[in-house]
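Write out the 3D structure for:
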Amino acid sequence: MTTEPWDTIVVGGGPAGLSAALWLGRYQRRVLLFDAGEPRNEPAWAVHGYPGIVDPSPLELRRRLQQQALGEGAELRAGEIVRIEGGKDAFTAHTHDGERHDARRIILAYGLRDYLPDIDGIEELYGTSVFHCPDCDGPSFANTHIGVIGWERHGVRLALYLRHWTSQITLLTHGRDLEIDEADSQVVLGNGIHVVTGSITRVTGHGGNLTQVEFDDREPLRIDALFFHLGSEPRCELAEQLQCELDEEGYVVVDRGQETSVPGVHAIGDITGHPHLASIAAAEGVRAALGIHRSLLPPERELG
């Protein structure tokens, strides 16, 4: 346990948390970041559209951000924060192995965990030709045949959104009836989206490339990429534990400085809502760092 409180403890080592640690270090703040590992985008073959870097792997982007943060004096540790007590200027964070660390501010950046379809072959192809994020990976499959697993409005919206990049969209309901009304069904038909209702038995591929979707009652379907949206959950419950306000979708509510309803606690990255992009997460980390630095400046430097 440190004898002097950290200025900030950051919980999470993705682009959001690392960007916050980097900028807090630039401001000569004492910052300690804990990374529990298993980042949400680790299976992805690349992070697309990150300014200044062309399609780095998630691990390469993290490595670069870690190097920058360390270079500015931030301290990075592998480990998990399981409980946070106290309040502004006097928080205590407890690790999974019993350590206690005091801090004046807290940044929550622990991200989300996605629900994957329980279909044979999905996990092996996830991140290379099976995806959950249309913004990240839709542009990479322009003018190809894309399948979308879904039967509710979320799945239908995903199919319609991906229609921007290709005219070949097949909506796969995986044995379920479409749970949309007649007006929405007409929108689906009007956009040329084909609907297949058979139950999916497995997906197959080679070298990370999806080749076909197999069903229990019809011939296999050859497609190039598969998207799904079955929801996600926070990787831990620290926000709820701290009694941070959540919106109706379960995302942490923050102000313009990324501060939550609990004074001194900031939240950044995917846990604050859409869009779930690495570049947005990094920007939120910088915004939180700036806000925290300013909040720690002595009051005698302020004009009356």
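Residues 116-228 form a domain with the FAD/NAD(P)-binding domain fold (CATH 3.50.50.60).
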